[in-house]
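Reviewers of the previous submission asked for a worked example of the structure-prediction workflow described in the proposal, so we include one complete record here. The input consisted solely of the amino acid sequence. No template or homolog information was supplied to the procedure at any stage.
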Amino acid sequence: MIDRTFREQLETHNNVEEVRQRLASGSYSGRKKTEAEEFVRSKDAAREQAAKDRAEAREDESLRIARKSLKVAEDANDIADTARTWSIVAIVVSMLTALVVAFVQLVYD
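From that input alone, the workflow returned the following structure tokens.
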């Protein structure tokens, strides 16, 4: 019961750096030292896990942005293909128009 109460005190009234300093200065001994060391380890592990979670979230966001960029690039490529097709159609129509004009001039002149 004393250990649990001590752990609750650590959780409630102390930050990890204070406990780390007290451990370094020898303020804790016996079971309290063991409990304080476990408190520091658990807080460090939680901090490391939070950092990993943030890094993973950043990676996920980067991947989402990359996929969206790829989709935009693919759409732009499709638009460029359509524009190229229409420009070819316009060239063919203008060439046919020029031929018709030349033919009409030959026939009526």
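The chain has a mean pLDDT of 93. We consider this example representative of the routine output the project will generate in years two and three.
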